[in-house]
## 1
Amino acid sequence: MNKHQSTENIKSGFPWLIMILMSSVTFVGLLSELMPSGILPQIMADLDINEVQGGNLVGYYAIASAIFAIPLISMTMSFNRKNLLLILLAGFSGSNIIAGMSSDYTVIVILRVIGGICAGVMWPMIAAYGMRLVDEAYHGKAIAVIMAGSTLGISIGMPIVTVIGNDYGWRTEFIALGVFIALIAVIGAFALPSTPGEKLTASSSPFSLLKIPAVWIVLLLTLLGVSAHYGVYVFITSLVDEIQLAGGTEWALILFGVGSLISVLLAVKYTDHYLRLLTVAMFGLLIASMGLLLVFGGMRGVAHFAFFLWGLSFGPLVTLFQAAVSKQVESAKDVATSVQSSTFNLSIMIAASVAGLLLGVYSPMSLTWFAIALALPGLIISFFAKKTLD
């Protein structure tokens, strides 16, 4: 696509190829964050570090994303969207390639923080960028397609890069991902439309957005939904071992992934028209899946179905909340989604900490109670939040 092609021409239809290209960005963004998880023992052995230091390779990345999202999105509001995305892709690519070549743990941590900073800007800006390329009636669809990449990253990408890491070494895994991201950047340089930034004003600042009651409702739903899901997901292996699921974690993740993919497709089609219904269904399916695990966790077949239902609930998580917060503002959607994105990342850290404390005292089944306790108020709030979600 010629960089001078007008956005108005693109808006005449739904630009599937461009949206799929943007989806590939969230795909590699997710992999860049979680990739060390699958091959931590390898990394720890090679760098001679302990488990805490190994876990920090993911933790520091997430913390950097949460801390830097709002200030950097505000600072880069005036940047051309295409140029900003290409800079971020260069940061992702370079940080992964250099980390794969480094033998110094401190250097790798710094590179992971750089990757986290890029992610903190990328997640909120790419959704807003995509919305600018389509008519308002397709905003939810654009977010759903773009964010589908993150779901595919969990369900398909992580197993692939983990196999690469196990067969060819963690360094090859890092470098391969970096090269793949560079390839996406090259394609993006030719295919993505050039879109100007916006001027940040007092009325579009993060503090101004937080004066809108509906934004707080969306942030509360984000906190409840993300904490409920990730409190269990982070320790899915412990839960699978507790109920002795036939097929183990591999089958749990496969069924979870299939459910996620199906719900992502549903979100692509229906988010624009049924946002509140989908949000209510997301919380309801989470409660149902956790209830099945709690009551019938040891029963073959039922437990497998529960993981499938959980995946159905999990798939549209990012899409629904980003679409919801975007509906609350007319301009500066990047800032609005950055506030939501920071809440999302903060919720993951809170969920992992609380769930870890619960596991230190109770059995892994306590995590299902934790999820239900958070999802119930989420279900009630989303059901009655007609002005916010409709």
## 2
Amino acid sequence: MKPAGHPLAGVDGCKAGWIAVHREADAAPSVSVFPSFQALLDALPDATIAVDMPIGLPDFSGKGGRGPEALVRPLLGARQSSVFAIPSRAALYADTSDFTTIEAWYAAHRRASAVAMETSDPPRGVSIQAFGIFSKIREIDQLLIAKPDLRGRVFESHPEVAFCRLNGGAAMALPKKIKGAVNPAGMEERKALLCRHGYEKRFLDQAPPRGAANDDFLDAAAMMLVAGRIAGGAARPSPDPPLVDRFGIPVAIWA
């Protein structure tokens, strides 16, 4: 890959924490898993980071989510279900306990859904899929509230929006997953696109680190290309200019 002249990292949440595909200016990319987002920031102190995680939370959620989601969905055709609406900040923080049982987890999901219904119009609960990443959304949110300087180097993106932008504005033809299982043809379609943008196939074909799945790895690889676009001034936010939440955190999906 061409040197970007700047450290870059593409990040996705994974079972073990956070998977990052990252590179120094003149080096080949490498892949690492970090147990926390703070650990990732400590290990990559100067990197421009693009992460597949919502950044900037609304006090009230309107039709389609925060705003960015509704703008990017039409670009994705059959892939638009991959962009799910993010509920209000109050719903995200409705229950922040560590769940020791599946019953407690479902009870917390019901509480978050109830708060989400009260803080959205039209009233909308929380999907199980969205609830599953609440702790990771809060992890980044708390860092960006506490450390405003991070807002200039940690940017929200979305893999399918990134693949669409890297593919000249055309959404991927094949799904990455079918009924929760990785779809090999969809993965190969994305690997071919990433290779056209400078990755080596053997890098993408390696097994992901322990605690991360193959699709997490590919998504992080796409996020690193977005980080390069951001650092180089080629990326665009949706909306443009970004919205801001009540803490002044930018709200936009970059690609």
